Amino acid sequence: MTEQVPLAVIAKEWGRIGVLGFGGPPAHILLLRRLCVEQRGWLAASEFEDGIAATNLLPGPASTQLAIFTAWRVRGTAGALVGGAAFILPGLALILLLAALFLAGEPPRWVLGAAAGAGAAVAAVAVQAATALVPASLLRSGAGPARVRWVCYLLAGAAAAVLTGPWLVLVLVAAGAAEIAFRRSARRLSRTGDTELRRPDGDTPPEASGPSSPSGPRAVLPLLVPGLAATGGLGALAWVAFKVGALSYGGGFVIIPLMQQDAVHRYHWMTDGQFLNAVALGQITPGPVVQTVSVVGFAAAGVLGGLLAAAVAFAPSFLFVLFGAAHFDRLRANTAVQDFLTGAGPAVIGAIAGSALPLALALHHPWQYAVLALAALWLLVLRRPVVPCLLGAGALGVVAVLSGLPLP
């Protein structure tokens, strides 16, 4: 690390980013780079770019992990803990306050209208989030048969988001594992062909000596947690939050299908409309989109539930960085990890896009679909920012209900 940055400075600077970080990961990355590279010179530009690449290899909220990593880079474990907490807490406090307002037993009618309007735009936000990821993922996949597999993974992820709910993560892992197998086989055949070209006698080459190649990332999924998720209480809430924080590749909107089935249909903590409100709040507040899980926690068990959900969801990010940051270079160089992400990436995009269907079907009234259409025009045709879209949709919802149109 370049210098011993005081913890008070880390708390101040990372807290400032936590307050100003409207707009999701792009805004977070921009603010962190401006602070650590351009203004303070704590990190070289290449170090910062390496941090982005490494944290994008991990499941969970990548921009949060980048905030933790950069704080670790300038002050070690203490810096990671202080910087990560300072980055997360402002958005968490704000989203819990808004959850208390929007999920109150008898909120004012205009509040309900704002929630219904903003929630109506969420499906368009999901589609926009998915389309933004397509170019880089296509470039990574390559051409030929790899492009065909990319489409298959995309469709599988979309179908899983619509049909499987919280088990979506299994499809993401399966896509990554399948791509490891395909690419390993292709490399093996390529090596065999090269060896045969070098051996005119046609003899079968001997087995390579030495240790075998890495077997790829092993996704250890605790699928059954007896006495935890089955209770429907705090144990179930912790399990849902854990899936969001530790098992969601791609972060951001891929958490939506992971949460919706559990929060709405399995445990009945929220209605469809309230879940849409939670997603909208996660978008318009500063900090990571994963804060959405704290609204689910608030609906399940009040402030305690919101704090528990946030703590469980963000704990893996701290652990990944604290125990893995020193090994990030090897992680980036691991062929199996790269192959896994090449397969899981399009499945994540499909899941994000697929989540738009149940989100749209959760709407109840024609005026909400009109708001959704305007949001799609704003985001997908005009390519304008997300936060103004949601604020505008909320304002349209207020106008709609004050004009006498029905509430969901």
TrEMBL record:
Residues 192-216 are annotated as: Disordered. This is Chromate transporter. NCBIfam families: 2A51 (TIGR00937). It is found in: Cell membrane. Residues 192-202 have a biased composition (Basic and acidic residues). The chain crosses the membrane at residues 80-103, 110-133, 153-182, 295-328, 340-360, 366-382, 389-407. It comes from Kitasatospora cheerisanensis KCTC 2395. One of its GO terms (cellular component) is plasma membrane. Its main location: membrane.
